Amino acid sequence: MRFPTSYEPWRNLYLLQVEGKVNGLHFAARCYLKSIMGNVEAVILGGQNRLARQSETIWMNGSLSCDFSKRRGDIQFSSYNWNCFSVDDIRNPFCQRNISSVAVFSIPANSFKSGCKYIFRLQVSRDGNPNVSSRKVQGITVIDHKILQVTIECVRNCRNDFFTPSAKIHLTSRCSNCGGELVRYKWYIDGQLLVTSRDLRMYIRSASKGIRIKLIVFSKYGIYGRKVKNLVRNTGPRGGLCSVYPRQGYEAITPFYPCCQNFVSLNGPKEYWYFAGSVLLGSCVDCNCEVYLPVTSSIKVLVCDVAWACRTTWIKVKINPLRSIPNNIHGLLDNGLIDRYLQTIQSSASHITKAESGIILTRNLTNIPFQSRSSLARLANLTLTLSHRLYFVGQQKESLLTMLVKIINDNFEQINKNEEETFIMQKPFDNLRQACREVYEIIERLCKMSPRPPWSVYSHYYRAFSTGKLDQSLVEKLVDETKKLGNDETNIPWIIWLNSTWEMERLYRHLNYHRGILSDMGGQRKALPSEVAMDVQCFNTFPKKIVRVLTSDKIHMVFFGQAVLKEVLGTDEGRVCLKLVSIKLKLNWWYPIYKKPSTLVLSVRIFQREDNFTVHIPLNRSQIHTKTFITYDPELATENRNSSRSISSRVSPRSILLSTAEIKNCLREGTLQTHQDIRMYRLVLMEHTLLAVHFTTSTHKLQVVLRTKKKPSFREISDSKCTIPALSTNTTLLLRNNCRKADRAYIALRVYANSSISQTDNTPIENGPARYAFVFQIRSCDTWWYSSSGLDNQKWSHYGCYPTMDLSVEKGIRCTCTILGTYTNYLHYLPGVELPVGVFNVAKLNVIVILFYVTIFSFILLWILWLYVYRNRLPSKTILFPKFELDDESTGELHNVLISLRTGGRINAGTTASVHLSFHGQSQPVRHITIMQDPEHIILKSNSTLYIWVRTRDIRIPTTIMVSHNNAGRFPKWFLRRIELTDIQTGKTQVFLARQWVEKRTLLLSSSLIYSQGDVRMFDRWKNRFIMSFEMLWINWSLWQPVTGSWRESVKYPRMSRAKRICEFISKLLINFTICVVFFGVTTSENLNLNRSTFLQYKDIIILTMLCSFVNLMLQIMFDLVNYRFG
Length: 1127
Hints:
The chain is an alpha+beta fold. Helix content is 22%, strand content 32%. The chain is elongated, with a radius of gyration of 49 Å. The protein has 8 domains: 1-145, Immunoglobulin-like, CATH 2.60.40.10; 146-233, Immunoglobulins (Immunoglobulin-like), CATH 2.60.40; 236-323, Immunoglobulin-like (Sandwich), CATH 2.60.40; 324-515, no CATH class; 533-633, no CATH class; 679-816 and 825-835, no CATH class; 878-1018, Lipoxygenase-1 (Sandwich); 1041-1126, no CATH class. α8 packs antiparallel against α9 (488-511). Strands 28, 31, 32, 35, 37, 40, 42, 43 and 47 form a 9-stranded antiparallel sheet that branches. It has a 6-stranded mixed sheet with strand order 49-53-50-55-56-58, with no helix packed on it. The chain has a 5-stranded mixed sheet with strand order 12-18-17-14-15, with no helix packed on it. Keywords: Membrane, Repeat, Transmembrane, Transmembrane helix.
């Protein structure tokens, strides 16, 4: 309202009156409007305190003071009230009351005293209402030396020194006396240095009630200036409730009246923004606004204060959908129901598929002067709906969409006349901004598909575009010239191109969005400058869940768990801060695009109080994950700097775009004529990189092998389960090089068959030939390798980060890192090299070699069998005691008794002493048997059996035996395994199990183990029997025991039989042969061809020697442990 009422009773109250006469009858209508005016704000350039040099002119600038009830281009205040006072210099004539009434004035040099402080007050009042005023104070301290006059200006989210959490803060610096001098910047947040660029962008999600920002600016001559700005946290509206009446109704017919009350905020007034899904319906400051809804289950309400601090709430509703399209849609305009009309055609547009229907539905839109933000949102949504519903692209669809974009641009211009052009950057318009950008992309694609006008028109258009002189009048002039060049049928596409490109340019100017359509007109674009975006997020307590942080420029996302914080900080308690620095570098690259380094760099810092990062931090027990949404190439990436959503699901950062020269140069195409045809390609895959093979064409089902190091063999190709479906246009294969060196990657393919290549008929392919096309895509994640020895040793390294195995990168490139530091990633395409496929010889059996081995192994088997039958006896000796019965005391029958004395097989199990045996029966006399030995020629050796044959009447079964020796010789101690007492006449045998060493003491043996002839019994437990057999048969495993060696050559078991020793020797040969077979694998035609040049490599000999030696050593250690345990 630019016609304010000055009288107090009617202040901000307006009367709208309509009068008319119909058929002689007079009618009139009145409407009273009360305007809620914004506040006024006084601003003094330079902040609350600043320094000034005595010998320089001091400028006082209050021109940035504004009245929010007026437009920015209007005169804000008719008078500015300046006052000054100083405690240090009271009588100074230049520091008095009412020293000026203009916005900007100056104080001559040398007017103030050095070292004194002067306080200036600026008070501004609204014209016509002096009760609405604002005051600002600035203190100036006068010094002798020169300083830089630096100010901190608010760009976003810092209005009135308030900032909203969970939103980006953007501050910029300005120096009034720097001239063209090159200066450096240092920004400090709460005393900590964060960034050294001119602008400060940060994203704070958790902070205290305020933050202190200090800026220091240095010149190359040592002159500096500094400025401090304190920002107070704005919590936004709180409390309050929202409701709606009625709670149920019909789509686009029923008016709904939302009502929000009792919200409290630090910055008034409050405004309520209503949404249906992502579409803005309107805004209101009270409960008297009506909205018409689509089919939805809730109304989203955004409660915002004057500083754009907002809070979200929802109101549940029930909407019944329209059963049919209303007949009299255009009659709604006659009744002034514009919002209902827009919602009705929006609901109707979701059911049409023909461009003719869309033109009829929207024919009255050009007659409506749209000028609200809600109408802009509805028009953008209507444009997107029609662009998706109208499937086929034609002149009618292009004309319809161009008309809608023109209406959107007109709506933008009407809004910009009454509001700031940056309104669309505020939070309530995030979805509107995204919708407008999608509209821009749609009209951009239409412009690319439309044919260009003749050169005379096109050159004139492009010249005006390049010089910035393109406007509506010029476009209309070019349209008239185009109409004269041909008939209507040929002119229409050219006219559509002119109108659509002009409307696209207008929309770009409103959005400040990247053009894209004019990039191929021959003009060189300016290189994008390097950009830095920094985000600082602090947690008062350690987060328990996974932390996900998106950088403010919407390029990177970082997510990690609590384990990363604990490993970096060494604790899981206290305050935690996370700092992300996203940098877009400026590279003047002239090499091929696929060799261009990345321009996107991300640095991650984790700290508690101060960021003292100097080198990267290895993560040994945790990982940090990053995700990049756009690529290194700004020409091929879509700029989404201010979007609340990083990348639309329909935007692919670097997907397969066959129209680009990069993909065309790297695309590999080929054909397969017969079923035996094979194609093979190769490229070099760098360390820790990921290879993605994108198949864009496949007329037949293909069988594919993808591997590194060696070329795929025919067997691998035939056995491969990896296939490419027929008629496929988007199939991806992944292969990652996990090695720390570069390696070759191979891909081989053929037409799918159930049989091997050699068994497949070499016949033409049905419906052939089979065509295919694919491209190699390389993905890599790198880290910056910090070095304390100097900047020259710092470089990018492939170690520490690796790309994840994602089939598609449409939603970003993901990296997993084991280093906390600075990261980047690469995404480009490489051409593959086609390889010739060699002919492999078929493996055939050699009959002579087979007969030789059969003969040798048959002879060895027969030899072992003969040795087992005839030479498998342990050493033994029999002693007969003649006339033993003469000393009998009993008078019974004379029996033959056979006593077997068995020693063990352990080391020194034999004895050099004479052995004494005493037999004690229950009712029998005691009989003694002494085995005399010469210590130099012993009979009882280890692992031997001594048989004693006596005839006696005194020894009967059962009995007990007492064993002792005379301790003669060097090794009298011996190991007794068992004693067997056999009565030949009765056929009974009594077994005495000793299994112990016989030392100086006497060993008394008794046994209840008595069995008759023909009985079969198992002595002792199975474990002890197994251990004894194991010792006897396998103790010589790791020693080289030749077949022809003496059977007394074993050191530990000198009494092992030759048959057992030969079995061990053959077993060792078989085990070693098995190891060799497993190492070399199955012999095939492929490995015969690969290894035909060398018989055996020295590396294989070394590896086999180490394997066999290791196995022998392990078994020998195990045998020694068994011998030690049970020996």
